[in-house]
Amino acid sequence: MTPSLPAWVEKRDGRREAFDADKISQSIFAATEAVGEPNAFLARELADGVLHFLEQENAAEIIPTDQIVELVEKVVRELGQPALAHALAQARARPAAALQEVKQDASRRTFTYSLDDDFDKVLDGIAAAYALQSVFTRDLIAAHESGILRLWNLMSPVLRTMVLEPPDRQPTKASWKTAWTQVKELSRRAETLAVDSAERYVAIHGPEWMDGLVAAAEAYAHVVVNLNVPTPPAWADQLAAGPLFREASATDATDAASAGSTAAILDRIAADEAHACSVHWHLDSRDFEDSQRRAPLEPLLTRADRLGWISFVLHRRRQPVLLAHGLTRDHPAVSMRVGLSLMEFLDHPGIDHDGSKLLAKLPSLARMAVSAGVQNRHRLRRLNPDLSRGFLLDRARLVIETLDLQELVEVTTGVDPLISKPALDAGLRIVQTLRDAAHEAGRKAGLEVAVADVEGVVIDECLVQPKDMAAAWQAAGSLLDGMDSGMVSVQLATNSSDVIWRHLQHAWKTTGVALVHFRGTLASGAA
Known about the structure:
Oligomer: single chain
Largest sheet: 10 strands, mixed, barrel
Number of strands: 16
Structural class: alpha/beta
Strand order of the largest sheet: 5-6-7-8-9-16-15-14-13-12
């Protein structure tokens, strides 16, 4: 047989259970705790070494527990950690009752607070601490607390993001209530909702539907409203068979109605002081050729207080339609977001500000993030069975977010990657290494993984000369090209519609950019 990881583990009492590679990391982390130096990342690195040797040497589908334990101790010792190997041997020699007592002690946590703290914040802190401890294993909790992993989406057992369901085939007169009810019901399944082609909902249900959506977003869940999407969603053609479009195609009828509704939708969202909705405005080549297509946006582009909630999506052929970070029509849900704090990782013991060491150790950090996604999926399946309906949870993605990528490259190379080819190449190696490791770990875990830069590579107009702007955009696109979803954040010197569209033209020419966000200047943001 070809060497591979075993499928099953045979316990000492004869029981069999599925082989779980993460348990090796957890046992090594317990050993680091036992020697008084808890180190979650070291445990993951050593576990990856164990798995490498096991995969090379094992040819059996079923492997005894004792054989795994002996290999773990041997590899940990040979990798230069004799104290941890000794702690593992001691743990193996303990009676089962003693081990159970240790596990029970480890599961107890103390939450401290000040009487000066706001009571609601104390309750939120307790809820977050409980969620963290009840969902994730101790090694991942330690990585989260050390700052190298950021585990979000903890407060309630729901998805991070999902797509709003298609409109009803038979529109009702109570369209305000229709939108309100739909958002309220789906908020039990996701924190954030994305509306695919909102103009089409309004064309079918009328403008009151948008009023209900905004009101429900204020009460229940943030909503990302996608507008100007060039390709219609699949349900648009399905609705064409209904009475609404009996004498016209879905595309023709809906486009005619939506042309007049886009401006009204933007006005309704802009009037919401709670900012419960944000906008993803989709662009394709026609938007740069026909200025009338972007006319509804023009009143908002010079206002810093409104520009902040608009993101521009570059809509390219043969690429997924991006509806929110990590969310596409093929993957209509995001189960969790995990952030990788790359600057914290650079400071981590064993890396010590060495960029080459960070690159070598990055795959282990990616595998930790995937493990967090798997553990959170178990939690969602157990606590919210409704998410398994229609295989929604199985199709949901884990989004791994790179934090501080641009800063990391600049610190390790001494140069901003937007102005230096060697620095850009270093950044590309980081992105490719991370993406390859994350996708491979996700494949083995049966979890769809997307790597995204949610913070965004920053282009600051005050720091980049106009003659160098095209090159800066090209470099930003190259750096993000290896991501599943890359964003550029532009810091504007002045809020000018012409300047914004000039940046978007640069973005359109750089294929690695999926999203563009602008930061306006307060001085020019007056109404």
